[in-house]
Inverse folding.
């Protein structure tokens, strides 16, 4: 299991909204600056599907990051299962006027765990920069 984490200086309501609304996800869901999130579908409920269309800026490569939500606890927990059956969860821990976000997920076997951890840490760091600048 890989774990990434960051503390966001914002209210839990704002953090939850920016983490789950497609119009915001497209702006922070970036692991490498040569890629971007072209589109987002997000049906935030147990059994609901999510799909992030990832595209290389030169349009030479793309992939879909998609899965199904398996558990939702409003303002505190999101658990999911990806199409390849890997699982993950994102927890939101409120502490006064800040929220610690922790994401745990099963890595793919094709890429090194350290590289996957770096990519996901970059995404969560981008989320922090995006929301705190808003």
């Amino acid at each position: 299991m890989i774990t990434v984490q960051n503390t966001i200086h914002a209210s839990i309501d704002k953090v939850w909204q920016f983490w789950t609304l497609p119009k915001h996800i497209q702006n922070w869901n970036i692991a490498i600056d040569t890629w971007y999130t072209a589109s987002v579908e997000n049906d935030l409920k147990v059994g609901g599907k999510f799909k992030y269309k990832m595209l290389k800026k030169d349009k030479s490569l793309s992939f879909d990051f998609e899965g199904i939500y398996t558990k939702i606890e409003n303002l505190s927990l999101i658990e999911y299962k990806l199409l390849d059956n890997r699982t993950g969860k994102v927890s939101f821990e409120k502490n006064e006027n800040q929220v610690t976000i922790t994401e745990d997920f099963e890595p793919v076997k094709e890429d090194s765990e350290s590289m996957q951890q770096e990519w996901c840490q970059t995404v969560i760091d981008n989320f922090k920069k995006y929301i705190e600048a808003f």
